[in-house]
Specification:
By secondary structure, the protein is α+β, with helices and mostly antiparallel strands. The protein has 5 domains: 173 residues, Beta-Lactamase, CATH 3.30.450; 148 residues, Beta-Lactamase, CATH 3.30.450.40; 156 residues, Beta-Lactamase (2-Layer Sandwich); 49 residues, no CATH class; 106 residues, Efflux pump adaptor protein, beta barrel domain (Elongation Factor Tu (Ef-tu), domain 3). 40% of the residues lie in helices and 29% in strands. It has a 6-stranded antiparallel β-sheet with strand order 5-4-3-8-7-6. A 6-stranded antiparallel β-sheet has the order 11-10-9-14-13-12, with helices on both faces. Strand 17 and strand 18 form a beta hairpin. The radius of gyration is 45 Å and the shape is elongated.
Length: 812
């Protein structure tokens, strides 16, 4: 039923009729508060000539409840947010009922919230109530003639539908906001999970975890505690400001909230500033006191690995929702920390393996040069230095003996001269010296143990580009042997694990250098002693026996010098493929199916495996559909003689035709094909199913063994005898009764180290039409080097050894 207004004579006025049904229909067509409020304001303003209408809702703010305008009609715009008890609106809030004020009863201060530029005749309010709760108000300003109670009461029925309409709209917006918040939170969690998984470096991961949790919870600080070997908690990282805790701080169970959580494994929420745990924590703290705290454990497979503290939320105390959020974030952080710890364990294992390898290298020989080369070159596999060097003490002065990447030291080279000058600067110290430069060129800061070292190293760093110089003394009980030096352009190139490895390496190097130095002095005495004994025995013989002995020795010498025999040099051999190629995907993807196994013969272009191709098939289908649609539209336009549209569609068709070709090319890349004819040499290919391959990763290797190439290791002392094209015979352990023949194709220009010896590889081409010689087969190879005297064949090796020793001693 529509309310009807009557004039001062009691006659109904048809132009003052408010159509409730029409307004209700228009309200139902809208779902949000602002459109509904606008409909109500327009309906009320249309009824009363020269009037203004404002629609308010009661809103909650951190400061308390207030009136917030949602629609204004008639040019009397109020303030955006008005205190609930302000002016005439405050009277309505005190008692939710219709109010009518005339200009004679109003003062300007009572409606100061309104921006009124006309003479106000009356001001009326209709409360909007839902289940006895005031949710808003309709404010009616009359500028032409004052309202009366009759008209105001007639509008009450419209206000009765306006209240539920605005309340329902507010509930709808709240539900939508909650849904969007949930979606945003899920998106945020997904983003955080990706960010946490973006690195496996522990020193980079902890700041990411702290900053992302702080950003999500909007708090003052995040403390990340990690469990140490003795069970104590160590504050590994702090994001934000918390004066009650600092990085490097340790805490045991019972010493604080974090320690209590590490003992119980249960999250703790403290929102009362007067809680005794916070009072104890804030003791002696004036600024930045902890008012509320959220502490949650980091669990990996049920085991406690750390604790995360969130301190002082910025807008309100922490609640159970925040507790749930930090628990969810900690689960993702625990996975990331677990992966990072696996990488650290792998690196420690790699360091240990390198130490074992270095130890084997430097203890397998007493050759001082080889010991020093192993010390400066081998650790580069795990220590990110750019140059390592060793200086040994000779008569009280340190002399450079080995530099990484240099087989021989050129004393006159500029870089060697510069390095020797820095060795002289640090030679006086007996402790570890670590000098670094940080900052740009204009504000470079040198960190050195002594002030006198800063100027020389500032010049040295500027000339060489290095930013770090680490010197460790090599010394034992007998005194100083020398210095072990590492340099890098990164001042932070050494981690604690690297420093620990260098200390162990220095100890091993000291022992090896001392043993090699002593060994250089022993052979002289050990060689001359037996010779003098033999001379004494020879002179003690009878003259006739001495003559017979001399004649016999001369005859043997002539026989050895004049009678030739064929000479062959031999060595261990291994069959290598003459040609091999790696199968690598051009795109990222999961291996869906593997079609071959190790040892299978494949042909060029044969599919070895397939990657997951759902996305690429979908992209191809979509592009084909677009192409067909564009083609049909072009044909339809041509049939309709619409040349312009046909031209546009023709361009679209050509574009989608190219997209179809691109999609087919991408789909084709999901097939991993053999690059050549040969055999699959990669083992356990079936295990690759389901594994993710990045573009450029190696999936398999295909070897062409139609002509085998056999590498025969030839000692470096015999390499001068070996001609190119020499005949060779090969025996392999797989075919012990067969001999394979071939010729030397090439001799490697660079030697390879095997234990204490160095070898060159003579690469022998051997026909292998039936593919019996498989890559990796081992055996023995002999290479003919021509006819030579028997003495040359038999005594060449000992002669060369003796010659090298004599040259070492006398150096002519």
């Amino acid at each position: 039923m529509s309310p009807t207004f009557r004039d001062e004579h009691g006659n109904s006025s048809p132009d003052l009729v408010l159509d409730i049904a029409l307004i209700s229909a228009r309200l139902l067509a809208e779902l949000e508060i602002a459109p509904r409020a606008r409909i109500l304001g327009q309906a009320f303003a249309a009824l009363i000539p020269d009037s203004g209408v404002n629609i308010y809702v009661v809103s909650n703010t951190p400061e308390g409840k207030c009136w917030r305008v949602r629609a204004t009609v008639g040019g009397a715009a109020p303030d955006d947010a008005i205190p609930l008890d302000s002016g005439t609106l405050g009277l309505l809030a005190a008692g939710p009922k219709s109010l009518l004020f005339t200009s004679q009863t109003l003062t300007r201060e009572q409606y100061a919230h309104l921006n009124v530029r006309k003479t106000l005749r009356s001001l009326a309010y209709l409360p909007l109530v839902v289940q006895k709760d005031l949710i808003g108000a309709i404010e009616i300003l009359s500028f032409e003639e004052p309202l009366d109670e009759t008209r105001l009461n007639a509008l009450q029925s419209a206000a009765e539908i306006a209240g539920p309409a605005l309340h329902a709209a507010r509930e709808y917006e709240l539900e939508r906001h909650n849904s969007l918040t949930s979606i945003s939170r899920l998106s945020q969690f997904y983003d955080i999970e990706k960010v946490f998984s973006s690195t496996l470096e522990m020193d980079q991961l902890l700041p990411i975890i702290g900053s992302k949790i702080r950003e999500t919870l909007e708090c003052q600080a995040i403390n990340v505690w990690m469990v140490q070997g003795n069970g104590d908690l160590l504050l590994m990282h702090q994001t934000g400001s918390d004066p009650t805790a600092w990085q490097g701080m340790t805490q045991k169970e019972g010493e604080g909230v974090a320690g209590d959580v590490s003992g119980s494994g249960e999250a703790v929420l403290i929102s009362d500033p007067e809680d005794e745990r916070l009072v104890r924590r804030n003791l002696n703290t004036v600024e930045g006191r902890v008012e509320c705290i959220l502490v949650a454990p980091l669990l990996d497979a049920g085991a406690l690995v750390g604790v995360v503290e969130a301190v002082n939320r910025s807008d309100r105390p922490f609640d159970d929702d925040d507790l749930f959020v930090i628990g969810s974030l900690n689960e993702t952080a625990s996975i990331a920390l677990h992966n990072a710890s696996l990488l650290m364990a792998e690196r420690k294992l790699e360091i240990l393996e390198t130490l074992v390898h270095v130890s084997g290298e430097i203890t397998s020989t007493l050759n001082l040069d080889r010991v020093l080369q192993a010390v400066v070159n081998t650790p580069s596999a795990v220590i990110p230095y750019e140059r390592a060097s060793v200086a040994l003490d000779e008569r009280g002065r340190l002399r450079l003996k080995a530099v990484s990447g240099m087989e021989q030291i050129n004393p006159g080279a500029r870089e060697i001269t510069q390095l020797e000058a820095m060795i002289a600067v640090v030679s006086g110290g007996s402790d570890v010296i670590f000098i670094t430069e940080r900052g740009d060129e204009s504000e470079a800061r040198i960190d050195a143990p002594e002030e006198a070292m800063k100027a020389p190293f500032r010049k040295y760093f500027a000339e060489t580009g290095m930013r770090a110089f680490y010197a460790l003394p090599l010394a034992d009980d007998e005194g100083r042997l020398g210095l072990l030096l590492f340099e890098s352009s990164d001042p932070d190139f050494l981690s604690p694990a690297h420093l620990e490895m260098i200390r162990v390496l220095a100890g091993q190097a000291t022992v090896a250098v001392r043993n090699a130095s002593l060994y250089k002095e022993v052979p002289f005495i050990g060689l001359l002693g037996p010779i003098l004994q033999k001379k004494t025995k020879f002179l003690a013989l009878e003259k006739r026996r001495r003559a017979l002995f001399v004649v016999g020795v001369a005859a043997i010498a002539l026989f050895l010098a004049l009678v030739p025999i064929p000479m062959r040099v031999d060595g261990n051999s291994i069959v290598a493929p003459a040609r091999s190629s790696q199968v690598q995907p051009e795109i990222d993807g999961l291996v869906r199916q593997v079609h071959v196994r190790e040892g299978d013969h494949v042909e060029r272009g044969q599919v070895l495996a397939d990657l997951e191709d759902w996305d690429y098939r979908a992209a191809l289908a979509g592009a084909e559909a677009k192409f067909e649609t564009a083609t049909m539209e072009m044909n339809r336009s041509l049939a309709a003689k619409d040349g312009a549209e046909a031209g546009i569609q023709a361009v679209q068709a050509r574009y989608w035709a190219s997209e179809v070709e691109r999609a087919r090319e991408r789909l084709e890349r999901t097939h991993l094909r053999a690059p050549l004819d040969g055999w699959v040499t990669t083992p356990h290919l079936a295990d690759m199913t389901g594994r993710h391959l990045a573009a450029g990763d190696t999936f398999a290797e295909v070897a062409d063994s139609s002509e085998a190439r056999v590498d025969v290791a030839i000692d470096e002392s015999e390499i001068s005898l070996l001609p190119s094209g020499a005949a060779a015979v090969i025996k392999v352990e797989g075919y012990p009764t067969e001999t394979f023949r071939g010729r030397v194709a090439v001799v490697s220009p660079k030697s390879q180290a095997e234990g204490d010896a160095r070898f060159f590889y003579a690469r022998v081409d051997v026909p292998n039409p039936d593919g019996r010689l498989l890559p990796g087969m081992q055996g023995r190879g002999k290479i003919s080097v021509g006819w030579h005297p028997i003495g040359f064949v038999l005594f060449r090796s000992p002669f060369l050894w003796l010659y090298s020793k004599l040259w070492w001693w006398f150096g002519w």
